[in-house]
Amino acid sequence: MNVVDHVRDMAAAGLYSNVRILSSLLLTMSNNNPELFSPAQKYQLLVYHADAIFHDKEYRNAACKYSMALQQKKVLNKTSKVRTSTGGAAANIQAQSLPSEIEVKYKIAECYTILKLDKDAIAVLDGIPSRQRTPKINMMLANLYRKAGQERSAVTSYKEVLRQCPLALDAIIGLLSLSVKGAEVASMTIDVIQTLPNLDWLSVWTKAYAFIHAGDNQRAINTICSLEKKSLLRDNVDLLVSLADVYFRAGDTKNAILKFEQAQMLDPYLIKGMDVYGYLMAREGHLEDVEVLGGRLFNISDQHAEPWVISGCHSFYSKRYSRALYLGAKAIQLNSNSVQALLLKGAALRNMGRVQEAIIHFREAMRLAPCRLDCYEGLIDCYLASNGIREAMGMANNIYKTLGANAQTLTILATVCLEDPVTQEKAKALLDKALAQRPDYTKAVVKKAELLNREQKYEEGIALLRNALANQSDCVLHRMLGDFLVAVNDYQEAMDQYSIALSLDPNDQKSLEGMQKMEKEESPTDATVELDGDDMEGSGEDGDLEGSDSEAAQWADQEQWFGMQ
């Protein structure tokens, strides 16, 4: 047993700090005396030294050392050919015990991926012949291809993963997200389902995620519920998070929060999906709970985007937009595929008047999550803020045609129509259709109430809002009902409605202003009431576009640091 074997054993035992020191010394000795170690031993030392550096998270340095190891392997291959031709059987045995060259290339690609050098990572993995690619190499390639927009190559790599590992469920989700038909994906797992026991649920699971990525939220909900009710899969955290997320996409905030809470109770260390949960809680005005949630997740891990997004949502709904911008940027730095982080940063930029920058972030969110309507709503909101009604109308019509006439798409289209005096009647018809499908859909109720206010149809508006509040309690709806009641001189009940709104969201400035106005003015005018449903538009963010931000200067340096200027 030689000294290189000792290094190998320490590396296998995970003694990386010891490996790093010893291998560094031995490599220096080898440089000063090339005859001290054989080419194979020097290759081993370089790989073990690079592994130790990788463990210390010095990824650029590790990539350099792995590349040096590959150069040494080329020298070794040349000498090995000479020895093999002379019948050196011992050389073949030694070559088989050396660190895998394919594994070294994977490590280089892993370093590049962490450093966000995706093109370099793809180039390294592309250099590996297809037949030599392991499942993890194909999986990394598939994810990199998808991120780069090379969908056909991504599909090919995901399929190769499934061919080798038919129970690779994340590869199944990857294929479905790239619009591969559910039936085709299911056919790739049929053999293993028929061979192994207790896998009859897999075809239903595949169908559920096919519905999710096709934007068919209701069928996705029904399918996941049928899975969740099965005794063997009851209380599965991943299914509950997926169900909560689909409820959120369908605009059912109440059930989304309920399922997120259920998942969180089953797994107190849950991180996945908590950014959406925190956003919903912040939007509903539960800022104290959001602050607690963010702090708890930071204690679990500050290397995930979710706690940063949650804290950003708390700042955003506290109208501290500059801080929300910084936190959103930090989340994106940790995970560039975080849709919720992109939406947070986009919303903060929009509310700070940086609309063109916001548009870039909403477009990227759309690319990553083409079936999430809040991404489109954020972009449409930016177009309307910059008087781009034509662009907003084009986007709204495209959503309507692509995803069909449901309550959400009808409301989005109606929202744009309300901005043009020529299309007011069309907006009214669209909202009536939306409310016929879902009478409790809050965004449609808000827009219809705004339209009735413009027409000064206060009694009709009061009836609409009372009907909507019969089965739910929402801050905006209570506040708007208070505004309508002021218009018909019912001051006492208006005060009650403002009080209810503030109990649901103590930070709702509009309700507070309504109460203060009533206290100051004993006899209100008959002018049209000011209603504000803007916080129901876009991705659901509250706040005045011109809101003051006392922390702007404090966070300016951080914004520059994270490249947000």
From TrEMBL:
Residues 514-523 have a biased composition (Basic and acidic residues). This is Anaphase-promoting complex subunit 7. GO terms for biological process: cell division; positive regulation of mitotic metaphase/anaphase transition; protein ubiquitination. Keywords: TPR repeat. One of its GO terms (cellular component) is anaphase-promoting complex. InterPro entries: TPR-like_helical_dom_sf, TPR_rpt. Residues 529-549 have a biased composition (Acidic residues). TPR repeats lie at residues 237-270, 339-372, 475-508. The keyword Glycosyltransferase does not apply. Residues 514-565 are annotated as: Disordered.
